[in-house]
Write a structure and sequence with these properties.
It is built from eight helices and seven strands; from the N terminus they run βαβββαααβαβαβαα. The chain is α/β, with parallel strands linked by helices.
Length: 230
């Protein structure tokens, strides 16, 4: 079995779906430490004036000491209306806008208390829209201990994985020797970001998956995996 995993990410970028589509099972690392100014509560979309962040506000009391699944959204701020308005305003002229906007209207009509629940729901939605069929698990549902490389190795052993796909930063912490001793192959993603037709002028890379979906529709997965080495 080929395994991969990642922290819950808001409106993820293309590279995450490249990893997932090349695996048999994806584990959401929802019980590791929350890190601000990462991608757990924000991502970028494109506008006529360049890229902007969509940020999900979180309650900051002791948030640096909490696990991701304990992080609550600050619903005193009107973030859902603002995010949906930004999406509609900047993608209403995209070719596949009418194919997908109702999914986002539904997501933003719901009440979300925990950030990880929102991100998990959106991940499942994107996998459905991209027609990626993999097994999804949450790390919090598994009794696995360790940090970083040890945690990943223990996860592979628990799930009987023969390969693990690390992200592009994985080589900075993975103990390759320990994986070899257990006869588990390590793969390190080196994502070559594709270009595709976008609105609003010159191409901008590393945006949220929604930019690709609205512009390219059912060709999105083909574009995500175009000339990749995994």
């Amino acid at each position: 079995m080929i395994l991969t995993g990642h922290q819950p990410t808001y409106l993820p970028w293309l590279g995450l779906f490249n990893k997932i589509s090349n695996s048999d099972c994806f584990v959401l690392f929802d019980n590791v430490q929350y890190l601000p100014k990462e991608w757990m509560n924000r991502n970028k979309i494109k506008t006529p004036n360049g890229e902007i962040f969509l940020n999900v506000p979180v309650l900051k009391k002791s948030f640096l000491k909490k696990k991701i699944y304990d992080i609550k959204i600050n619903n005193n701020l009107d973030w859902k209306r603002k995010h949906l308005k930004s999406i509609k305003l900047n993608y209403s002229k995209a070719k596949f806008y009418n194919h997908y906007i109702e999914y986002f209207e539904e997501v933003y009509s719901k009440e979300w208390i925990y950030l990880s629940d929102l991100n998990y729901h959106m991940l499942k939605l994107f996998l459905k829209l991209l027609n990626i069929n993999v097994k999804l698990l949450k790390l919090s549902d598994l009794e696995i201990k360790g940090k970083k490389s040890e945690l990943v190795l223990n996860l592979c052993l628990k799930l009987n994985a023969k390969k693990f796909i690390f992200g592009q930063q994985g080589s900075n912490y993975a103990d390759i020797i320990s994986f070899k001793k257990k006869q588990i192959k390590t793969i390190f993603q080196n994502y070559n970001h594709p270009s595709y037709h976008q609105l609003h002028g010159k191409f901008v890379s590393n945006l949220s998956i929604i930019d690709l979906l609205f512009n390219c529709g059912n060709k999105s997965l083909e574009i995500i995996n175009y000339k990749q080495n995994i």
